[in-house]
Amino acid sequence: MNMKLDQQIPMLLGPHHMPETRGLCLSEEQTVSSILRRPRIGGNRLLDMRTQPQKLTRRCEVTAILILQVLTGSILAHELMHGWLRLKGYRNLNAEVEEGICQVMSYLWLESEILPASSRHAPSSSYALSSSSSYPPTSSKKGGISHTEKKLGEFFMHQIANDTSTAYGDGFRTAYAAVNKYGLRQTLNHIRLTGGFPA
Known about the structure:
Order of helices and strands: EEEEEEEHHHHH
Strand order of the largest sheet: 1-7-2
Largest sheet: 3 strands, mixed
Structural class: alpha+beta
GO molecular function, one term: ubiquitin binding
Shape: elongated
Protein name: Protein DA1-like domain-containing protein
Organism: Setaria italica (Foxtail millet)
Strand content: 15-25%
Number of strands: 7
Number of helices: 5
Helix content: 40-55%
InterPro entries: DA1-like, DA1-like_dom
Radius of gyration: 26 Å
């Protein structure tokens, strides 16, 4: 959008101290006081001195951008699934099939972050895309997530599950039902062969 930044800004995921914040831009500002009226010296004290705050501006003021991991991770899971489909030769999928399976990956990522492993619903077959990974995945955060992050993750899961659009909502529900019944690998194999979900 032709909005060039003149600085490389560090991007950080998951501010633990502010879990209710989706994103935060940190900047640095320095303030000094300037003397408006010279003081008189009276004994051991300065008298009649007036000061006014004055900002010192710097060329580089943005120190970092923080992004809440729960939202960013679910978006990355969705977009990385698009990338995986392209790289593996899944071509010309209709929007309901492609967006549906990508929403499943977003949903599963959120589930892996906010639900304890013992309470996750594992489908009949493995969710794994490769033999080296397995379901259920463990949370990527060390020490777990806060109550607020959990609630936010549950809200995002609810949004995905109840989306009213054809591609994202109906596509997700059909894809999720197929993955729960047949597993991710078989569902993806069926999509490759037929361009649609197994019944």
